[in-house]
Amino acid sequence: MARSDDGGQRGKTAAREGRRCHPMVTRHGQKRQLEGGDDGDRGKSKRPSGSSASEAGDDAPTCWICLGEGPNESGEPLHRDCSCRGASGFAHLSCIDEWGRRKAEEWDGDDAYPYELQEPWIECNQCRQYYQNEVAVDMVDKLVAFSEENYRDDPSVHLTSLSLQLDVLSEQTLISCRYPKILQGKPDAGRREEEQNLREEVKLKADNVLSIIGRLKERSASLSDEVLEVESNACFLLGNYFNSKLTKEDARRAVKYYEKSLAMNLALEEEECVANAEGNIAMATSVYDGNRKWTDKLVEKRRAVYNLNCAAGDEYVADTMQAGIELAVSLHSGNRMLEAERLSFKLVRTSNQVHGPDNRITKEAERMLQLCKERYVTIPSRGLTRYRALRYEKNGTECVVRGPVRVPSYNLAIRPFLGPIAADAELSNATTFAVDSTDIRPTLGTPVVCYGLRLKDSHLNGKIGDLQSRDEQSGRFNREKDFNVHFEDPNIDPKPVDHRFMRILFDVPHE
Known about the structure:
Blueprint: H1 23-26, H2 31-34, H3 93-104, H4 115-122, H5 133-150, H6 155-175, H7 180-183, H8 188-219, H9 225-243, H10 248-268, H11 271-289, H12 294-312, H13 318-333, H14 337-354, H15 360-373, E1 376-378, E2 386-393, E3 398-406, H16 415-418, E4 425-436, E5 441-442, E6 447-450, E7 464-470, E8 483-487, E9 495-496, E10 502-504
Antiparallel strand pairs: 1-2, 1-5, 2-3, 3-4, 6-7, 6-10, 7-8, 8-9
């Protein structure tokens, strides 16, 4: 069964496998995406620079705050993990912390959500994109330390800072960047152990947030919207924690937390957060009610989140693109490979241009695109073992395959709970060989094109579709009409097609 992702509210969509939107954006519209680096640039769109390191010349990177080259007097190196290019965006983390504290002195507290106060610690002042990976973790830790020193009795600051920390730590369970040196070269079991430790850390911090809010409720009959948003985020992340346990009992506990989060977001009228909660509820309930149509619900909700972000702001910002990646993951999980591959291709192309080839979002979109391009078949004479289909030869009469391969048994939608997106693994006896095209059976999700059909079905020749479902009238395995072709033409209903009259589509047209 599938799950949603561990992410929380950080970011406008924060839709990474069901990640929630953060109030700082829903309350401030497109503030994070549209504000420039200087007060004079406020309101102007400022996308990440498109220049590369080579275009930046031979100038050594310098800290944009202290202007120092290389490590500072304490030996602290320069860091950059955002969407900046060339020599821009580098800084010492201690300089960012000091700069944030100076900026905090200018905050007048008029902003209902303390966005301007927390901004220096969570996003790059140059490209206006969130910090990523270890830099994000280190900087949000510094933000929490600052808020505990100065705003511990101010829930709007302290609790929202803790919520941001929850979001950043949750994100690290997806990309395993909290402990890169520990994880480097570690076997899968070691990585899973570290990821589980990180989830436990998120749970403890989420429980702590709810405990603080509980004490606030004892003193006050009503809480601000900002505190309720933090509470809904903590409930959502606790739902993700229990959802990751993959048991019916824990799935029921997850649903209870998701429903609490959903109720609060309905009251707050947070559309994106509502959509993500509803999608996660559908996935969690499928664990104990056996509903196999949860992927349709998931795609529907993630499409809604992605479309909301595209309609509300700039489609090039990292948050919107992350929502697109998670929609692609859901499409892949639902065997809608054509749409998943086209969307992934678009995201890779755009992220390379806007955020650069080394950006985390670019790399994740590339991994997703590669997964969408994989084609798998079974060969009935060799059992149910899968093979990777590579290409056709001899005018399509033979298909070159390699294998056998072991394809990850879990659905992509539970990827965040089981570690990074995994590729297939060749077995020790894997070989490359050609087989008669009529002897292969494409697996679920495979994009195909029909050919050679006659009479009443001849209009389907040349039509593209993917194998999204089984034809229940023809049995389960190795039957001639085992799968239904769901055509991309919306005017054509899904139809079972004999495997002899379809070809695997290796090159999906992206335009």
